[in-house]
Amino acid sequence: MKYIISLLVISLGVFFSSCSPVRVFLEKNEVASIDAYKTFYVINQYYDKNAFESPVLEENLKHRLSEGMREMGFEQNETNPDLIVRYNTNLTDRQKEVNNRSMMSPYSGYGMYSPYMMPFDAGRSSYSVEKYDMGELVIDFIDTKQDKVVMRISAVGEITKPKQKTKNLFTSVEKILKAFSKSVVS
């Protein structure tokens, strides 16, 4: 019985972790050694632009990035940091086609799909267009001694509801910092 419950818990964990709406991409990694970096500072690439056009999300993003870097053992230093964590957000309007046609007809083969029968919704439009926003968060890790970007990680996610901006932003920060810690430790 314990085996079945543990198997169920593991399979549900795998299912829910695979359904994340955010994808993370490591675009550049030139970090030689993490030991060279002890301090950091978080800045926005565009000073006059808020994260996803929201001052609240801007503050939350800065706070999450700072807390995540502190949890990894870095100290925040505004005057002379070893590593600058520079971020940029982008929100793009997109569209996608959604197929609404049912592939199973209740009148053919007792609910089974039959390629020889016409679908029961023939003649009606079976595609619709949905509008959504594509949110992107790009974080550059800049070495202040070399004055160059040593690592760039981006996260991209689909946003269909306003509350999803906050959720995707927090998920993106979490995944980017996880990718950063994996890349610099290994």
Quaternary form: single chain
Distance from N terminus to C terminus (CA atoms, Å) equals: 39 Å
- What is the level-2 CATH architecture name of the domain at 19-95 and 133-185? 2-Layer Sandwich
- Total of helices: 3
The major beta sheet can be summarized as: 6 strands, mixed
Sheet/helix structural class: alpha/beta
- Give the CATH topology of the domain at 19-95 and 133-185: Double Stranded RNA Binding Domain
List the topology elements.
Elements: H1 2-18, E1 22-29, E2 39-44, H2 55-71, E3 75-76, E4 83-99, E5 127-143, E6 148-159, H3 162-185
Parallel strand pairs: 2-3, 2-4
Antiparallel strand pairs: 1-6, 4-5, 5-6
Helix pairs in contact: 2-3
Key words describing this protein structure:
globular; Double Stranded RNA Binding Domain; 186 residues; alpha/beta; 3 helices
Give an overview in words:
The chain is of the alpha/beta class and 186 residues long. It has helices at 2-18, 55-71, 162-185; strands at residues 22-29, 39-44, 75-76, 83-99, 127-143, 148-159. A hairpin with a 4-residue loop joins strand 5 (127-143) and strand 6 (148-159).
